[in-house]
Amino acid sequence: MDKLCLVKGKSGVSVLVSGSDKGVAMIAQTLVDDIRKVADPERGSVRVLVSPECEFIGAANSAVIIIAGVIGETSSYDDQAMRFPDAVDEIKGKRECFFIKCDKPAQIGGKDVIYVFGSDKLGCEYGLLYLSGKIGVSPWHYWADVIPEKKEAIELSLADLDYVSHEPSVEYRGFFLNDEWPSLGSWVTNTFGRFDEHFYATVFDLLLRLKGNFLWPAMWAEVFAEDGRAYPAASADLATDLGITMGTSHHEPLFRAGEEFSYLMTDSNDIGYGKDWSYYTNARGIYKFWEDAVRRDKDHKALITIGMRGERDSLLLPADATMKDNVDLLKKAITDQKKILSDNGLADAPKVLALYKEVEDYYYGDKDTEGLCNWSELDDTLLLLSDDNFGNLRSVPDPATRDRKAGWGIYYHFDYHGDPISYEWVNSTPITKAWEQLTTAYEYNIRRLWIANVGDLRPVELPLSYFMDLAYDYDKYKEPNITHEYMRQWIESQFPECAPDLIDRITSLVDNYTSLNGDRRPEATHPDTFSFTEDLEALVELNRADYLMKDADEVATLIPSEYKDRFYGLVEFPAKASGNLRRMMILTGAYDIAASKKLPVANKLKDEIDASVALDKELIRVYNEEMSDGKWRGMMSSKHVDFKHWNDEGSEYPAPEYIDGGKYDDMSITDFFESLSKPHSPDAKAFDADDYTETSSIEGTSWQVIDGYGKSGVSVKLYPLCKDYEDPATAPWLKYDFEAPESGNYKICVYTAPSNNPYKGKGLRFALSIDDGEPVIIDTLPEGYMAGYGTDKDWCKAVLDNSRKTVYAADLEAGAHELKLIHIDAGIVFQKIDIGLKEPASFFGYRN
Q1: 741-766 residues labelled b (16+ CB within 10 A) or e (exposed)
Q2: Are 459 and 580 members of one domain?
Q3: Same-domain check for residues 96 and 138
Q4: Average pLDDT of 18-30?
Q5: Looking at the structure, do residues 366 and 391 belong to the same domain, yes or no?
Q6: Which end of the chain is more exposed for a tag (fewer CB within 10 A), N or C?
Q7: C-alpha 108, offset from chain centre
């Protein structure tokens, strides 16, 4: 028999722990609770037994015993672990590893025994939660209402009970609860009263089930170290008990929450902590502020943020300060911070400096001022790089520093509150994009810390799961074009009893809505985003949105009743709401045109817009008030319509009015759209990146097609990564054949991913040649380009379009031609090529 019956009827399970580790005992209880949720066994028959000597007294009624321990912690448990010496040797001394073994047929007292041993606390906890996963409990059982299926009996495969885990790929893996008001904050207030240990217990549960170990807590108005309900440090103590490493975000040094200073500041810099958050005018007060926090929190497990930025994510010094002013002040702050840590016994504690926004500039310095990059005081400090807040790496370590001992990290965004437009509503990051950028990070040796900004957490369940899985097991998920299969398997795990064809439908629905939002995030979609005059673009996008909404409705009717709540939260709401918002904006653009011309079709458009507004409100109401019997009240509260600024100021639903008393005519909305579109020019040609006719590969390189990514749903990138070429004559290329119907000056538009220059001060280049002419090197980034800054209009446009267009003009004779795109700088990703006598003015470019 290849299965072990864990629970059936009155048969019991006892989980034995030594009691020496509070976290292991807590997760053992979690496993017991999970078994009870699945099998509903007789009361008291499934339990945790604290047995320091690993004795079976009290387990007489248990058919199965689970022995859980940490190697090297208790001799009696080590004796049990050594029944499997090879497994012990395989995990001993490694980070967060575990093994699962079993005795069947029963070897000890006639009972079946499952052994769960970790190389450390987290390893043992992951092992226990591994068993929870195998009995059907999803990491999202609380946060997405993925309630496990009830079973009369729980059976485990013997193959699953013969498992040895590997060391996680990334050392610190976690997420950041950020931008939490109004949505997450409102829900927490309604559910828990405040961000206390009861709330964080649910967060830690999710984090550990996702095999994470690191968290930046909510901080807009909260103080993690002080907000416990039983006592101030209750949440912090819980994290340490569980083995979770806590941190504070990129602008919250030495255990202090972002708003703590505003709560504790005094009226004068001469008393208390002072009134200025400035190490220039109030070094004494801030030093004391940091020192007291270290004394308060030094016994908690932490990756300690050092450095300093201005209040509320702003500049450290006024805008007119020099690079030297900033570097010198930052050095002084860090030197003092390290002294505080040393004075409190934390000289060797793990530390991180976030090179976020302007701090990255201070790290590299400029032509007149040496930055922090060669400063020896940072040799023991993990350096945290960042994306540009829109999922594109700002930079990667150069070859000289790539292998620094303290390592590198990446701060990645699935949510953002800032320039050029915030995105905090539903998931708008396709996991294919995350794959392309995060695998790049890993290959550049960014492997010590991965942390994702997840905003309110609930809208980004899929990308967070993917992020955590990739960080935990990079080798399993690193290959191209497996993200769709990952998505399907993830959906199957949330809807385990659905038939394969229904899983396919759900997967397609999720894929389509994330692709829609990946092309243009909802908040950044405006009435004029899509062209009404070229290639019927607006009508094509309207039909795309309509199909998405119709598909969501159809799939919803196929979902079993017990899955309705999870389906609404994970799939139906984000899909239908995304399609509806896209529809609302396109119809508003059409209305503006029709109303300006006094056309009666404007009245039909008004009715449709009003219906879209009403539907948006109803979808939100159901999420907040009806889904899961009102459990998520307040969670879906973020504004999301037609942002006029970086934030939601001025964001309002469209409010069209009837013209000419509301009269109608025979023109349909589709007819109106078609009447606006100009004929497709015969000289206009569009090529997907994979429409090449020939490629060249050099030195073991190859071009990889990336499905589901880019302007037309496919991109091409050179692998392996980290390959740069200076001479176009010896670099790999892609060749495209095309026909020029007439002679003229043609515009060759090359669309690339909105990637940034890998190295500070460098470009992101490719070369182009026509008909084997001399290659021309083209930098896709303008001089002075600054990723992540709202003042840089080129960056703003690229991240909002999720693409970058580079235009090259060439005089061509009528007839056949060939175009070569040549790889120069690592990181360039080709998406699409348009060729025509004029540059396309539409969002997606030419469509053949």
Answers
A1: eeebebbbbbbbbbbbbbbbeebbbb
A2: no
A3: yes
A4: 96
A5: yes
A6: N
A7: 46
